[in-house]
Description:
Layout: H1 2-6, E1 28-29, E2 38-39, H2 41-45
Antiparallel strand pairs: 1-2
Amino acid sequence: MWKYVVFPFIPSFPGAPSFPGMPSFPSFPCNPLSPGIPCSPFIRDHL
């Protein structure tokens, strides 16, 4: 699961590239340092 932790603030948006096996989730703000940057809830929940 480290690949998700190494890139904790990857924006999630239509057409965005994904890592092999990375599930898709809706976008919403989750970066505590930059609340306007969206990323997946999986990434948020595993910071």
